[in-house]
Specification:
Layout (H helix, E strand, L loop, with lengths): L10 H23 L6 E5 L5 H7 L4 E6 L2 H9 L3 E4 L11 E7 L8 H11 E12 L5 H13 L15 H11 L2 E13 L3 H9 L12 H16 L7 E12 L4
Parallel strand pairs: 1-2, 1-4, 2-3, 4-5
Antiparallel strand pairs: 5-7, 6-7
Helix pairs in contact: 1-7, 5-8, 7-8
The structure holds benzoic acid.
């Protein structure tokens, strides 16, 4: 999870409200990566290292990078080789057999730079596999944030600091960066929020309210919860986020 420029991630807060991010996608993504003992793997946007650790347990050598200092410290505390690095400005050269990324690319607003950096970081024939928010991700949450902003007299932003491409657009981007054997698909995934919508909003909600002063966020979160309860909360009180994932794999050509 690489942090957007204005957000400082807290590893403790992430552990409380977003542990499900690694838990849910982890097994399928690790299967897709299929790390082999002795391989060198880069975990791009490694967050607190929960999945990086799983990759290391396959016998591969794994390096984690993340933009958020607190997350990198949490990953290092697990004994992982983790470094603070901007995913949009990777400085790694033909070092890795595979690059893995989970729930991080939607925070990186220069996706061409990310793809170019990953391509350079891979050995010839290297694999790039990942999952992140795709087109249609959190549309209900976004609409509720806009409605709450409007109702409280705040101007509406043109867009959010999130990147949610279609499978076709992301395939085109990877092709332009030089990758081949590309597969990409959108996967709608309503996602249970173990600490409810308020937990999710406390961790991620600021990014839905650009331009709104921080001392007003709680008030708008309350309004969003009222707006979303009929559609994202079950009658028994379980909240879901309207996630859509873009899962992809690609290869750097042998030559
Ligand atoms: C996501 O994982 O899709 C996501 C998380 C936080 C904010 C926006 C999107």
């Amino acid at each position: 999870m690489s942090a957007p420029a204005q957000k400082t991630w807290s590893a403790q807060d992430y552990e409380t409200n977003a542990r499900f991010v690694a838990d849910l996608a982890g097994p399928a993504m690790l299967d897709l990566l299929a790390a082999q003992p002795g391989e060198r793997i880069l975990d791009l946007g490694c967050g607190d290292g929960a999945l990086t650790l799983k990759i290391a347990q396959t016998g591969a050598t794994v390096v984690g990078v993340d933009g958020a200092a607190d997350m990198v410290r949490a990953a290092q505390a697990l004994g992982l080789d983790a470094h603070q690095m901007d995913g949009m400005a990777l400085s790694l050269d033909a070092e890795f057999d595979a690059v893995f990324t989970n729930a991080a690319l939607h925070w990186m607003m220069q996706p061409d730079n990310v793809a170019a950096g990953v391509f350079k970081a891979l050995k010839p024939g290297g694999r790039y596999v990942g999952e992140f928010g795709g087109f249609g991700n959190i549309v209900g949450l976004q609409a509720a944030a806009r409605a709450a902003m409007q109702a409280n007299g705040f101007g509406l932003p043109d867009g959010l600091p999130h990147y949610y491409p279609t499978a076709e657009d992301y395939t085109a981007l990877l092709t332009a960066a030089g990758f081949d054997s590309i597969s990409a698909q959108l996967i709608p995934r309503p996602t249970l929020l173990p600490t409810g919508l308020m937990g999710w909003l406390n961790t991620f909600g600021d990014s839905l309210l650009p331009g709104v002063p921080a001392d007003q966020h709680q008030r708008l979160f309350d309004a969003m919860i009222d707006l979303l309860k009929p559609s994202l909360c079950t009658p028994s009180g379980t909240w879901f986020a309207d996630y859509v994932r873009l899962r992809f794999s690609a290869q750097k050509p042998q030559r």
